[in-house]
Here is the input.
Amino acid sequence: MPVYIYHAEKGGELLKGTLKARSVSMVNQYLKSKNLDPVYVVEKPLLPFQSGVKRVKNKELMQMTRQLSFLLSSGVSLLQALDMLSTSMSGSSPHFKRSLLQIRGKLEAGSSFSRALKGYPHIFSAFYVNMIACSEETGLMDQVLTDLANYMEKIEAIKSKVKSPMIYIAIVLFISVCITGGIIVFVVPTFETLYAGSGGQLPALTQSLVDLSHLIRNKWYLFLAGLIGIPVFIKQYLQTDQGKQTASGIISALPVLGGLQYKGDLARFCRSFETLLRSGVNFLEALDVGRKLVSVKKVKEGLRVARKAVSTGKSFGKGLGMSKVFPQMMVGMTSIGEESGKLSETYKKLADFYEKEVDALVSGLVKMIEPVMITVLGAIIGTLILALYLPIFKMGEAL
Here is the structure.
């Protein structure tokens, strides 16, 4: 019997869990019998690294958000706008277009827009849904959608800057593997034939390289499967929640990349927190949503400590200071923003500041990585060449 992942509401609270059932309709019936209102049900995948849902690219969501804002500001109704977008968006996946049509159907059945979006958590984040819920209360949906699109562009810029050094490292490593593999498969056999007639025993380093060449040439299909399969598996695994947590933990432990990830999280939190406050989301809800958007464990824990302090009557600035995780400048500016009643403006300035710091860190990291990777690549090639010519050097010594 398949297992289903479900999200359901009860008294305004979103509950998540799993349930064994024969079909989606049976899951819905069971949840309703428990006075739970199902908003999202999907079959749990058999393999642990699969997500079970089709993802939508952030670029597609950003395009849809900006176009929806334009249509609403032009006087088009929400139902008409969704209908137009589901049929006219160029470059969008069929899955995304079908989801928009399904959301339109829920609106026709009497659901609010924010509630309809909750049924698609793999597309619309809690941040997105909260912003839409606030826009429904204020009647400024077109403006909020514009803010959302701008926010997503800035967050994507931060993510791309943080990822760019890692992508550079991956490319250099891939090139290193290809060059090394080419030498082992095509060059080493030539030298092996050359040395075979000498009758002498090869040096340990050279013999190890020859044995590795035999292994790769005889079991080439295993190495090819690994070369293709391992990156695919890693990519699939990193799309899961567990994979993201594992990758975040590894990166956080690295001296330079950990600092870059930390500053990137500060920038992401400040930008999201500012956007939510400015859109009218209440303070604690904005803090909860912002906390979900960060990936570094210590930042999540620091925000949890700060939220607990706020809920017990302390100021937010004091709560951030109690966590001993955030920079003193952020703690001080938060306290000033609270006292002046301009917390949203304060966090906008903090977001701008940390985004500039991320830019500076990325530039410095790229400059540092280039010579390091060239040195590593040179050391690998140098070791291979040494192993190939070591018997010639030994012959020279013997003569």
